[in-house]
Amino acid sequence: MKKILLSTLIVVFVLAPALIFADEPGFSGGLEYPSGYIAPYPEIERKIVISIFTNNPYFTNPLIRQLRHVSVLERSSFDNKSLTFTTNYYYKGKYKYSYTSRTADAESFYQYREKALLKKQLGQFRATALSKRQQDKAGGLLSLNISIKSKTFEDLFGEGGAGLKVSGYHRISFSGRSQWTDGPSTATNKQSKFPALNMEQISRFDINGTIGSKITVSVSQDSKSDVPLANRLILRYKGDEDDVLQTIEAGNTNLSLPNTRFVGYSQSIRGLFGLKTTAKIGGFSLTAIASQEKGNSERTSFEPGAGATMKTIRDFNYAYGRIFDLGRMPSNHDIPAEYDFFPGDSIMHIEVYKNGKVGSDPDPAAPLGYFYVDLDDTVSYRDTEDGQTKVHQVDPSEYSIHSTEHWILFNSPNGGSDSYLGYYMKLQRANGDTVEIGSVTEDTYRLKMIRNNNALESYVTWGYEWRNVYSLFATNIDLEGLEINIFQGGNGDEHNTANEDNQVGIKYTRILGLDRFDRNGAEKPDNLVDVNSTIIDPYRGLLIFPDRKPFATDRSFSDSDTLSIKIPEIYSLTYGHLELSKKSTYYLQVSNLSRQAEISLNKPNIIENSERITVNGVELVKGKGYNINYDFGRVTFIDEAALDPNADISIDFEYTPFITS
Q: pTM of this prediction?
């Protein structure tokens, strides 16, 4: 919660006493008015402030709404070199009360802002330097460097001496327990009150170093590890380019087989422990290895086809931050004179921007910008961004727009932003005129706001977000295998078979407008969701209810009833509010035939980089085609081809068993 100290700026006007001039025989009088004086911008008094704070917006937002004071530049005077500020101390509904305007010397104000910014940046530089100094000090338990100047040593091991760095710890803990029964000791029953002692030793350390320029040492030891390959011992010799003996590896090693006429693909066998050498004589390369295999190899194949998956979605778990209106329009605003778009308007060009923080933004070259609800009225709306901010353009591949319905759909929530979103646009009106909304040609960008991260229901931009969109947990959905049903049941009670999917015999899917047509397209409900209509986006895997507030609407579809129990809190509270899970009354049950984006290999402790994944014979690249969790043996596909139910997937991998012989 911010506390804003407003400095009082006083414009002083001095009224001189009347100067009276008397001449015979008459009388005359007059007043002299000295020129006005503009007070310099004062230093803000710094005070220690103690406040009670909670992260729960249910409590803080009403208080912030009453206490937040945002200074706004009211006017400026070039002749007087002055700036005049004003601010509201109370704003609720149509009631708006402001402080008396304050005028300050423009040059003093600029010097104050420059000094404050410099002080902030110096503080950040000091914090960064201190953090680096602390990291440099944490170099480990022991660092040993030995300088060796010997021609024989350099011939064998290369230039430089020997250096080792040891980090880790060895901990010994003692514990004891004394147990006896209160009573007298006898000749046959003597009790000792001396505690039974237990001792536990834990060793965890890493040793890294070099001997000359040709030998490297790497040792990692953890006495608590149950996985043998977690402990590593590597001693490696690397010869010069023209040496016969190229490398010697002792300890943990691997064997790579190149692609040849006898092996259809290159293969890497990991999880080996032993000795490996490579030599080179002319164009002939030789690899010799003597090792014990510490890991097991396995292959998993997934044949073409799809499986049915069942998911449940609570009524308040809409697809947060996916679709937004691009301005004020009938679907979100009640004042036609303030609409930003009209029928026939078409978007010709758009650039979307998100904000960063001044002073902490990683890109110092990022431009500054303002976000406004109304670019022609920058003071009337409470959504308006306070002050300048760094702005970054969102990659056009991260969103798509509807040029005539004037909405934007992001591939990820809020286009990857956790704060403000806005845009610059070229729009062709229905009469053929072309207008620009916003500006990105000046030093400071002026952008049309579509999202405010601190938005409340009373804010204009609150209604821009579509809260009637739900994710179906898959993309490229086969509509023939998609089934959607809606049930009434409390949060956590989704598996209760007694939950009803109808209200007095009429299914909820029909009441909420998801079933208005039959399979032939006739306007006749058939108790099946209209999967072939515009309410389903199979490519992105989205379900879009026809009403913007489906679980609170009074709108009736196909002459059916409306919901008897409505949940208006879904559309008035922020996403994720704790109250929503308590109010939740309905849930969606989604079943579809599709290949899951995540596959379990049914083996933990996968050896890192040992996997080889092919889709229809094409090998995928880690990080681009898939991601893998080696500890739990789970593969998450990124490549769209792998999500095709008809794709043929093969996965070769090695893993370390918990028990080894």
A: 0.49
